[in-house]
Amino acid sequence: MLEIKNLHASINGKEILKGIDLTIKDGEVHALMGQNGAGKSTLSNVLVGNPAYEVTEGSVIFNGKDLLQMKPEERAHEGIFMSFQHPIEIPGVSMVNFMRAAVNAKRKYHNQEPLSASEFLRLMREKRKVVELDNKLANRAVNEGFSGGEKKRNEIFQMAMLEPTFAILDETDSGLDVDALRIVAEGFNKLRTPETSAMVITHYQRLLDYLKPDIVHVLLNGRIVKTGGPELATDIENKGFDWIKEEVGL
User: Domain extents for the chain?
Assistant: First the structure.
């Protein structure tokens, strides 16, 4: 599904990614862990096409297509979704109108007929149940006045509506209490299929207890320096990153 080779990227002239190699197959969930400033969020921003980041070397192939040649909206229509660490508020824009525009834009890209109002509302009711999103929240402006947990739950709801094939969860567990974390993680798990994949960026083991990744990577100083199974996340939880730094000579 996703193949990244020797990816280098900078922001404001400062190199952050220094040669990322990563392959994610259909149906796999990969966790990406590392200290602040290691490049985790930079990688996610590069994948979704944030123009603030400049790719200086390397390639990214997504389902056989050159991802780096696509506009951000084309990447979204092709099936990439990112749940932001700090979802923004969009005052004056209702969730209903926002999501209907997004869903129908994707359908247009794939030469499908737009959903009628009744079809869209039926879909929205169905997907809202996945993450236990209150109907009152769904009818308000996008994220306006939402708590941290409500914003994250709303992100997974948007993911359910758009049905991406590759989801990036960028520290979705940040600021969540135990109940909100469980609801968000369970919502994500309900959306998993053998054809969908994900990259989960986190500092903590607790989210991975729910999501159960297939592979865990450690990103330090702009490179993936260690890869292992779920037990690697447990080791990091218990011992931190210093032992990995010593192991790889950082």
Answer: 2-248
Cα–Cα distance measured from residue 8 to residue 20, given in angstroms and rounded to the nearest whole number: 7
Query: In CATH, what number does 2-248 get?
Result: 3.40.50.300
**Backbone dihedral angles phi then psi of residue 46, each to the nearest 5 degrees:** -65, -40
DSSP result, 122-150: HHHHHHHGGGT--HHHHTSEETTT--HHH
Regarding pTM above 0.90, the answer is: no
Residue 32's H or E segment, with its range, is strand 29-33
d(CA 100, CA 119): 10
pLDDT tens for the chain, 250 residues long, are 999 999 999 999 999 999 999 999 999 999 999 988 889 999 999 999 999 999 999 999 999 999 999 999 999 999 999 987 777 778 888 888 889 999 999 999 999 999 999 999 899 888 888 777 777 666 777 877 777 777 878 888 888 899 999 999 888 777 677 777 787 788 888 888 999 999 999 877 888 888 889 999 999 999 999 999 999 999 998 898 999 988 988 7
Tokens of 213: 């990744």
